[in-house]
Protein: FAS1-like dehydratase domain-containing protein
Organism: Mycobacterium arosiense ATCC BAA-1401 = DSM 45069
Amino acid sequence: MKVGSALTRDDFDVEAVRSAWIGTVVARTKGRYPVEYDPIRRYCHMIDDGNPLYLDPEVAREGPYAAVIAPGPLLPYFAGGGPWPRKPKSEKGAGRPGWTYGVPTPGDRGINLQVSWEYLRPVRVGDHLSSETRIVEIFIKPIKIDPQAVCIVTEACLTNQRDEAVAVCRNTVLVHRSKRQMAVVGDSDD
């Protein structure tokens, strides 16, 4: 199988790709900073969220979590390593676009189809978050412009400093070929 170049239907073996990639951890990140009140406060003010469990330490202390908690959409920020220094790319899948996570696919055009979050436990100020992303599914999803488009499903598990899962993000990316790529391999249905 050619990685990084156009593949024909005969070249692409989805079952071989599935067996090689499903279960593969494609990213591990330890949050650079602990969960802090000020980024929570700034975020809530930007989106006009006045929830006292996020904004008022006194009210939050008396609430169900006994402390200020982080809004769900901020969890990747706290679990991330920050933009610098850039993370080195893994050897597996080198040369592939980032949205493929290195998985070989016939095309290199990516569309994010779906993101779903499940929040499992509260994240409090002072917690330290980490994230691990793995490939959980790969399948062919024919679309009008490319009958051999491929969906890659990942699952990111965010954990706290006690290795307790606090959230899970499931993401589906569709990767398809451009018209030029399909014309090169003579695989266009036009």
